[in-house]
Amino acid sequence: MTFPPPAPLRRSPALWLAVATLLLALTLVAAILLGTEPVSLARAVAGPGLDRNILLHVRPPRVALAALAGAGLAIVGTAFQALLRNPLAEPYVLGVSGGAALGATIPIALGIGATTLLGAALLPATALAGGIAATLLVYAIARDTPGQATGTSILLAGIMVNAIASALITFLKTLVPPSRAQQLLRWLVGFIDLPSPAALAFVALYIVVGSAVLLRDAGRLNLLALGDEAAESLGLDVRTLTRRVFFACSCIVGAIVSVTGLIGFVGLLVPHTLRRLLGPDHRQLLPLSLLTGATLLTACDLLARVLFRWLGTELPVGAVTALLGGPLFLMLLRRSAL
Fold this sequence. Notes:
Keywords: Cell membrane, Membrane, Transmembrane, Transmembrane helix, Transport. Belongs to the binding-protein-dependent transport system permease family. FecCD subfamily. This is Vitamin B12 ABC transporter, permease component BtuC. GO terms for molecular function: transmembrane transporter activity. The chain has helices at residues 13-33, 41-46, 50-84, 96-109, 117-143, 151-173, 178-189, 197-216, 218-223, 228-233, 238-260, 266-278, 282-307, 317-337. The longest helix has 35 residues, at 50-84. It has a single domain (60-337), classed as Orthogonal Bundle (ABC transporter involved in vitamin B12 uptake, BtuC). The relative contact order is 0.18. The protein is globular and about 65 Å long. Helix 4 (96-109) packs antiparallel against helix 5 (117-143). By secondary structure, it is mainly α.
């Protein structure tokens, strides 16, 4: 399977980075100022009160989590698509998010939540283990196909891993008290909520380290477009690169899912859009994916907060990204089948 021919716009990479940074900054400001509870900036500046508490202590950590999660999911989607040379590759579709969610539910079912320091450190670790297990399973199925992994084998493996993970999470939900069952249900729908400082710090650490590995390998990911044999003839150790990228991606996804649950299609929307605009150079795509993914999920979380404010409820952000990414996924699937 090949990517559709891109129609890159010839602009300086620095200009694209500047535009993406500006859009992210504007989105972050809007996400802090707007939300389910109307606040007054004047009252917040005037003195202590509810408005100041919301603007300084409630919304910024949530917005930071949305930005970090969006950045991580987007760069992982870009890396997966380069590694597998498949436009449908995305952590949710591949089952990596499902495996990570299952890993995170185990300590929650045992009563270890993310609000404690132990939980904040343990949940990303167990989610990482689940994500790696799902990655290895999907990768084994894909590599079992002679030559280049087919989109059908990757897609079917990811669907089955997600289905099994969802079934096991549902099973665990029936065995725990109602309060913990509500926590487990979050992993199936995808929520951005106010994280504890420890959870936010651990998520940021995993994403920064994993993203640094992927950014360092951006030039090597470009060589994979030539095919494994051609890349190896140029001195690239494809097997080592594949393992390193898969592990870095699993670290990022595991940390994100341990706090937010299953949020899909960010890693599909952002890389596909950027590749159509900029072309296939991952030295540009990866850093721009970080910025654009952060902007997208922050905007989706803001939309989820304000869309049903008049009903006194909040739409899961996972539903918003699915409504945006689902049609694109079907379009790409139909195009790849032609």
